[in-house]
Amino acid sequence: MPTTVLFTGFPGFLGTALLPRTLQRAPEATAVALVQERWLDQARRTLARLEADEPRIAGRTRLVAGDITRPGLGLDDDELDALREGPLEIFHLAAVYDLSVPADLAWSVNVEGTRNVVALAQGADELVRLQYVSTCYVSGRYPGIFSEDDLELGQTFSNHYEHTKHEAERVVVKARDAGVPVTIYRPSVVVGDSRTGETQKYDGPYYALQLIARQGRVAVMPLPGDPSRVQFNLVPSDFVVDAIAALAPHPGALGRTVALAAPHPPSVLEMCEAFAAHTGKRLKVVPVPTVLSRFAIDHLPGVGRVFRLPSSTLDYLTHPTVYDVAATTALLDEVGVRCPSFAEHVGAMVAYHREHPDVGSAAMV
Protein backbone atom coordinates (compact mmCIF):
# COMPACT_ATOMS: atom_id res chain seq x y z
CA MET A 1 0.00 0.00 0.00
CA PRO A 2 1.47 3.41 -0.95
CA THR A 3 2.62 5.73 1.80
CA THR A 4 0.60 8.80 2.67
CA VAL A 5 2.73 11.79 3.68
CA LEU A 6 1.02 14.31 5.95
CA PHE A 7 2.37 17.84 6.02
CA THR A 8 1.43 20.43 8.62
CA GLY A 9 2.43 24.02 8.02
CA PHE A 10 1.67 24.12 4.28
CA PRO A 11 1.97 26.50 2.38
CA GLY A 12 4.74 27.85 4.61
CA PHE A 13 8.36 27.95 3.48
CA LEU A 14 9.40 24.47 4.61
CA GLY A 15 6.23 22.71 3.49
CA THR A 16 6.37 24.35 0.07
CA ALA A 17 9.98 23.25 -0.39
CA LEU A 18 9.73 19.76 1.10
CA LEU A 19 6.43 18.53 -0.34
CA PRO A 20 7.66 18.19 -3.96
CA ARG A 21 11.04 16.82 -2.86
CA THR A 22 9.30 14.15 -0.78
CA LEU A 23 6.94 13.08 -3.57
CA GLN A 24 9.84 12.92 -6.03
CA ARG A 25 11.85 10.52 -3.83
CA ALA A 26 8.76 8.34 -3.19
CA PRO A 27 7.07 7.98 -6.61
CA GLU A 28 4.14 5.90 -5.29
CA ALA A 29 3.41 8.16 -2.32
CA THR A 30 0.57 10.66 -2.04
CA ALA A 31 0.49 13.74 0.18
CA VAL A 32 -2.11 15.30 2.43
CA ALA A 33 -1.41 18.94 3.29
CA LEU A 34 -3.20 20.11 6.43
CA VAL A 35 -4.04 23.78 5.88
CA GLN A 36 -5.75 26.35 8.07
CA GLU A 37 -9.00 27.52 6.48
CA ARG A 38 -7.70 31.07 6.04
CA TRP A 39 -4.67 29.88 4.07
CA LEU A 40 -6.56 27.56 1.67
CA ASP A 41 -6.57 29.96 -1.29
CA GLN A 42 -2.86 30.58 -0.94
CA ALA A 43 -2.29 26.83 -0.57
CA ARG A 44 -4.18 26.16 -3.80
CA ARG A 45 -2.09 28.72 -5.68
CA THR A 46 1.14 27.35 -4.22
CA LEU A 47 0.23 23.75 -5.05
CA ALA A 48 -0.75 24.70 -8.61
CA ARG A 49 2.65 26.35 -9.06
CA LEU A 50 4.50 23.34 -7.64
CA GLU A 51 2.62 20.95 -9.90
CA ALA A 52 3.24 23.12 -12.97
CA ASP A 53 6.95 23.20 -12.16
CA GLU A 54 7.13 19.44 -11.55
CA PRO A 55 4.46 17.51 -13.52
CA ARG A 56 5.48 14.19 -11.90
CA ILE A 57 3.84 15.26 -8.65
CA ALA A 58 0.63 16.58 -10.22
CA GLY A 59 -2.57 15.14 -8.78
CA ARG A 60 -0.82 13.47 -5.84
CA THR A 61 -1.61 16.03 -3.12
CA ARG A 62 -4.89 16.73 -1.34
CA LEU A 63 -5.39 19.96 0.55
CA VAL A 64 -7.41 19.38 3.71
CA ALA A 65 -8.69 22.12 6.00
CA GLY A 66 -7.70 21.45 9.60
CA ASP A 67 -6.23 22.88 12.77
CA ILE A 68 -3.41 21.30 14.75
CA THR A 69 -4.60 22.98 17.95
CA ARG A 70 -7.76 20.84 17.94
CA PRO A 71 -7.95 17.14 18.90
CA GLY A 72 -7.68 15.00 15.80
CA LEU A 73 -6.20 18.04 14.01
CA GLY A 74 -9.75 19.23 13.38
CA LEU A 75 -10.36 16.40 10.89
CA ASP A 76 -13.48 14.27 10.63
CA ASP A 77 -13.42 10.57 11.54
CA ASP A 78 -13.24 9.36 7.93
CA GLU A 79 -10.21 11.53 7.21
CA LEU A 80 -8.47 10.40 10.40
CA ASP A 81 -9.19 6.74 9.67
CA ALA A 82 -7.76 7.11 6.16
CA LEU A 83 -4.57 8.58 7.57
CA ARG A 84 -4.21 5.92 10.26
CA GLU A 85 -4.89 2.85 8.14
CA GLY A 86 -1.96 2.78 5.73
CA PRO A 87 1.76 3.57 5.90
CA LEU A 88 2.02 7.16 7.18
CA GLU A 89 4.92 9.60 7.23
CA ILE A 90 4.39 12.93 9.00
CA PHE A 91 6.26 16.19 8.48
CA HIS A 92 5.24 18.36 11.42
CA LEU A 93 6.35 21.81 10.31
CA ALA A 94 3.59 24.04 11.68
CA ALA A 95 4.57 26.36 14.52
CA VAL A 96 4.46 29.99 15.54
CA TYR A 97 7.84 31.41 14.53
CA ASP A 98 7.64 34.75 16.33
CA LEU A 99 9.90 35.93 19.14
CA SER A 100 7.17 38.25 20.43
CA VAL A 101 4.35 35.70 20.38
CA PRO A 102 1.93 35.81 23.36
CA ALA A 103 2.14 32.87 25.75
CA ASP A 104 -1.35 31.49 25.09
CA LEU A 105 -0.94 31.41 21.31
CA ALA A 106 2.57 29.93 21.53
CA TRP A 107 1.39 27.22 23.91
CA SER A 108 -1.69 26.38 21.85
CA VAL A 109 0.12 26.03 18.52
CA ASN A 110 3.61 24.89 19.49
CA VAL A 111 2.84 22.58 22.41
CA GLU A 112 -0.78 21.45 22.15
CA GLY A 113 -0.48 21.30 18.36
CA THR A 114 2.52 19.02 18.67
CA ARG A 115 0.69 16.84 21.23
CA ASN A 116 -2.14 16.38 18.73
CA VAL A 117 0.23 15.47 15.89
CA VAL A 118 2.08 13.01 18.14
CA ALA A 119 -1.27 11.45 19.13
CA LEU A 120 -2.02 10.84 15.44
CA ALA A 121 1.44 9.36 14.96
CA GLN A 122 0.96 7.02 17.92
CA GLY A 123 -2.40 5.88 16.58
CA ALA A 124 -1.17 5.07 13.07
CA ASP A 125 -1.20 1.42 12.04
CA GLU A 126 2.17 1.81 10.31
CA LEU A 127 4.11 4.98 11.04
CA VAL A 128 7.07 5.34 8.70
CA ARG A 129 8.54 8.28 10.61
CA LEU A 130 7.58 11.49 12.34
CA GLN A 131 9.78 14.26 10.92
CA TYR A 132 9.63 17.04 13.49
CA VAL A 133 11.12 20.52 13.04
CA SER A 134 12.19 22.04 16.33
CA THR A 135 14.80 24.80 16.78
CA CYS A 136 18.31 25.14 18.15
CA TYR A 137 16.84 27.66 20.59
CA VAL A 138 15.39 24.93 22.77
CA SER A 139 18.76 25.67 24.35
CA GLY A 140 17.31 28.88 25.75
CA ARG A 141 20.12 30.97 27.17
CA TYR A 142 22.29 28.06 28.24
CA PRO A 143 25.78 29.51 28.87
CA GLY A 144 28.04 27.06 27.10
CA ILE A 145 28.20 24.28 24.52
CA PHE A 146 24.84 22.70 23.69
CA SER A 147 24.98 19.39 21.81
CA GLU A 148 22.41 17.59 19.69
CA ASP A 149 21.52 15.28 22.55
CA ASP A 150 21.12 18.04 25.15
CA LEU A 151 17.66 19.27 26.10
CA GLU A 152 17.23 19.58 29.86
CA LEU A 153 20.14 21.62 31.22
CA GLY A 154 18.29 23.99 33.54
CA GLN A 155 18.31 26.74 30.92
CA THR A 156 16.21 29.89 31.05
CA PHE A 157 14.35 31.20 28.01
CA SER A 158 14.29 34.59 26.33
CA ASN A 159 10.67 34.41 25.15
CA HIS A 160 7.58 32.23 24.83
CA TYR A 161 8.71 30.97 21.41
CA GLU A 162 11.82 29.33 22.86
CA HIS A 163 10.00 28.02 25.92
CA THR A 164 7.13 26.45 24.01
CA LYS A 165 9.37 24.91 21.36
CA HIS A 166 11.37 23.36 24.21
CA GLU A 167 8.18 21.97 25.73
CA ALA A 168 7.05 20.68 22.34
CA GLU A 169 10.36 18.90 21.78
CA ARG A 170 9.94 17.26 25.18
CA VAL A 171 6.63 15.84 23.92
CA VAL A 172 8.31 14.44 20.82
CA VAL A 173 11.27 13.01 22.76
CA LYS A 174 8.91 11.25 25.15
CA ALA A 175 7.14 9.65 22.19
CA ARG A 176 10.46 8.70 20.61
CA ASP A 177 11.63 7.07 23.82
CA ALA A 178 8.36 5.12 23.88
CA GLY A 179 9.11 3.67 20.45
CA VAL A 180 7.72 6.16 17.93
CA PRO A 181 10.09 6.45 14.92
CA VAL A 182 11.20 10.08 14.94
CA THR A 183 13.82 12.44 13.57
CA ILE A 184 14.09 15.86 15.20
CA TYR A 185 15.57 18.76 13.24
CA ARG A 186 16.87 21.88 15.01
CA PRO A 187 17.62 24.74 12.61
CA SER A 188 19.34 27.84 13.94
CA VAL A 189 18.37 31.26 12.49
CA VAL A 190 17.28 30.65 8.89
CA VAL A 191 18.07 33.31 6.28
CA GLY A 192 17.78 33.48 2.50
CA ASP A 193 18.84 30.94 -0.09
CA SER A 194 22.63 30.70 -0.32
CA ARG A 195 22.63 31.26 -4.09
CA THR A 196 19.76 33.66 -4.73
CA GLY A 197 19.26 35.19 -1.26
CA GLU A 198 15.49 34.69 -1.64
CA THR A 199 13.56 34.70 1.62
CA GLN A 200 9.91 35.03 2.68
CA LYS A 201 10.55 37.50 5.48
CA TYR A 202 13.10 39.90 6.92
CA ASP A 203 13.59 39.29 10.63
CA GLY A 204 16.43 38.36 12.99
CA PRO A 205 19.75 39.43 11.42
CA TYR A 206 17.92 41.35 8.70
CA TYR A 207 17.06 44.02 11.26
CA ALA A 208 20.79 44.70 11.66
CA LEU A 209 21.28 44.61 7.89
CA GLN A 210 18.42 47.07 7.37
CA LEU A 211 19.75 49.47 10.00
CA ILE A 212 23.20 49.45 8.40
CA ALA A 213 21.85 49.73 4.83
CA ARG A 214 19.69 52.78 5.65
CA GLN A 215 22.65 54.89 6.76
CA GLY A 216 25.28 56.89 4.91
CA ARG A 217 28.90 56.01 4.27
CA VAL A 218 29.49 55.51 8.00
CA ALA A 219 26.95 53.15 9.55
CA VAL A 220 26.55 53.47 13.31
CA MET A 221 25.60 50.17 14.93
CA PRO A 222 24.70 50.13 18.63
CA LEU A 223 25.58 46.69 19.97
CA PRO A 224 25.13 45.32 23.50
CA GLY A 225 27.69 43.16 25.31
CA ASP A 226 30.91 42.14 23.59
CA PRO A 227 29.95 41.51 19.95
CA SER A 228 33.36 40.03 19.14
CA ARG A 229 32.79 37.15 21.58
CA VAL A 230 29.15 36.25 20.83
CA GLN A 231 28.34 33.91 17.97
CA PHE A 232 25.34 34.58 15.73
CA ASN A 233 24.41 31.24 14.22
CA LEU A 234 22.61 31.65 10.91
CA VAL A 235 22.14 29.19 8.05
CA PRO A 236 20.76 29.59 4.52
CA SER A 237 17.31 28.18 3.81
CA ASP A 238 18.43 25.81 1.04
CA PHE A 239 20.79 24.09 3.47
CA VAL A 240 17.92 23.43 5.88
CA VAL A 241 15.71 22.09 3.09
CA ASP A 242 18.48 19.96 1.57
CA ALA A 243 19.38 18.52 4.97
CA ILE A 244 15.81 17.58 5.92
CA ALA A 245 15.04 16.19 2.46
CA ALA A 246 18.18 14.04 2.53
CA LEU A 247 17.87 12.85 6.13
CA ALA A 248 14.11 12.15 6.10
CA PRO A 249 14.51 8.73 4.43
CA HIS A 250 18.04 8.08 5.75
CA PRO A 251 18.19 5.15 8.21
CA GLY A 252 21.08 6.82 10.04
CA ALA A 253 18.85 9.73 11.05
CA LEU A 254 16.14 7.58 12.64
CA GLY A 255 15.84 8.32 16.35
CA ARG A 256 18.33 11.18 16.07
CA THR A 257 18.24 14.87 16.86
CA VAL A 258 20.16 16.86 14.27
CA ALA A 259 21.34 20.44 14.81
CA LEU A 260 21.03 22.29 11.51
CA ALA A 261 23.33 25.07 12.63
CA ALA A 262 26.51 26.52 11.15
CA PRO A 263 29.69 24.73 12.24
CA HIS A 264 31.67 28.00 12.17
CA PRO A 265 29.25 30.90 12.64
CA PRO A 266 30.37 34.53 12.60
CA SER A 267 30.51 36.62 15.71
CA VAL A 268 27.94 39.39 15.97
CA LEU A 269 30.70 41.85 15.11
CA GLU A 270 31.86 39.83 12.09
CA MET A 271 28.27 39.58 10.85
CA CYS A 272 27.72 43.34 11.08
CA GLU A 273 31.10 44.07 9.48
CA ALA A 274 30.16 41.80 6.57
CA PHE A 275 26.82 43.57 6.16
CA ALA A 276 28.63 46.91 6.13
CA ALA A 277 31.23 45.72 3.62
CA HIS A 278 28.60 44.36 1.22
CA THR A 279 26.60 47.59 1.40
CA GLY A 280 29.66 49.79 0.87
CA LYS A 281 29.70 51.21 4.39
CA ARG A 282 32.23 51.72 7.13
CA LEU A 283 30.94 50.30 10.40
CA LYS A 284 31.16 52.23 13.64
CA VAL A 285 30.12 50.17 16.66
CA VAL A 286 28.67 51.97 19.67
CA PRO A 287 28.58 49.82 22.84
CA VAL A 288 25.25 49.98 24.68
CA PRO A 289 23.91 48.13 27.74
CA THR A 290 21.25 45.54 26.82
CA VAL A 291 18.80 46.70 29.50
CA LEU A 292 19.08 50.32 28.39
CA SER A 293 18.61 49.36 24.73
CA ARG A 294 15.52 47.33 25.48
CA PHE A 295 14.00 50.12 27.57
CA ALA A 296 14.74 52.72 24.91
CA ILE A 297 13.17 50.68 22.09
CA ASP A 298 10.07 49.79 24.10
CA HIS A 299 9.43 53.04 25.97
CA LEU A 300 11.23 56.09 24.58
CA PRO A 301 9.24 57.94 21.88
CA GLY A 302 10.83 57.67 18.44
CA VAL A 303 13.58 55.17 19.31
CA GLY A 304 11.72 52.13 18.05
CA ARG A 305 10.82 53.99 14.86
CA VAL A 306 14.46 54.95 14.25
CA PHE A 307 15.96 51.52 14.84
CA ARG A 308 13.00 49.53 13.48
CA LEU A 309 13.82 46.36 15.36
CA PRO A 310 11.84 44.63 18.10
CA SER A 311 13.52 44.57 21.50
CA SER A 312 13.18 40.76 21.50
CA THR A 313 15.95 40.66 18.88
CA LEU A 314 18.50 42.06 21.35
CA ASP A 315 18.70 38.75 23.23
CA TYR A 316 20.23 37.13 20.15
CA LEU A 317 22.99 39.72 19.99
CA THR A 318 24.12 38.52 23.43
CA HIS A 319 23.18 34.85 23.03
CA PRO A 320 25.49 32.78 25.28
CA THR A 321 25.04 29.36 23.65
CA VAL A 322 27.45 27.63 21.26
CA TYR A 323 26.01 24.74 19.23
CA ASP A 324 28.00 21.55 18.86
CA VAL A 325 27.17 20.17 15.41
CA ALA A 326 29.94 17.57 15.07
CA ALA A 327 27.59 14.58 15.03
CA THR A 328 25.21 16.28 12.61
CA THR A 329 28.05 17.25 10.27
CA ALA A 330 29.20 13.64 10.16
CA LEU A 331 25.65 12.48 9.44
CA LEU A 332 25.22 15.06 6.68
CA ASP A 333 28.50 13.94 5.13
CA GLU A 334 26.84 10.54 4.59
CA VAL A 335 24.15 12.12 2.41
CA GLY A 336 26.35 14.72 0.69
CA VAL A 337 24.96 17.88 2.31
CA ARG A 338 27.23 20.69 3.50
CA CYS A 339 26.39 23.93 5.28
CA PRO A 340 27.79 26.91 3.33
CA SER A 341 29.90 29.28 5.37
CA PHE A 342 28.59 32.74 6.16
CA ALA A 343 31.18 34.21 3.81
CA GLU A 344 29.74 32.10 0.99
CA HIS A 345 26.12 33.25 1.36
CA VAL A 346 26.21 36.75 2.91
CA GLY A 347 26.65 38.37 -0.52
CA ALA A 348 23.45 36.78 -1.85
CA MET A 349 21.63 37.69 1.37
CA VAL A 350 22.56 41.38 1.08
CA ALA A 351 21.93 41.54 -2.68
CA TYR A 352 18.42 40.11 -2.35
CA HIS A 353 17.64 42.55 0.44
CA ARG A 354 18.82 45.44 -1.71
CA GLU A 355 16.79 44.32 -4.73
CA HIS A 356 13.63 43.39 -2.80
CA PRO A 357 13.14 46.07 -0.14
CA ASP A 358 9.41 45.44 0.27
CA VAL A 359 9.58 41.96 1.82
CA GLY A 360 7.96 42.10 5.27
CA SER A 361 8.91 40.64 8.63
CA ALA A 362 5.70 38.75 9.45
CA ALA A 363 5.55 34.95 9.54
CA MET A 364 2.51 32.80 8.84
CA VAL A 365 0.56 32.02 12.02
TrEMBL record:
InterPro entries: FAR (IPR026055), FAR_NAD-bd (IPR013120), NAD(P)-bd_dom_sf (IPR036291). GO terms for molecular function: alcohol-forming very long-chain fatty acyl-CoA reductase activity. It holds the Pfam family NAD_binding_4. Residues 8-244 form the Thioester reductase (TE) domain. This is Male sterility protein.
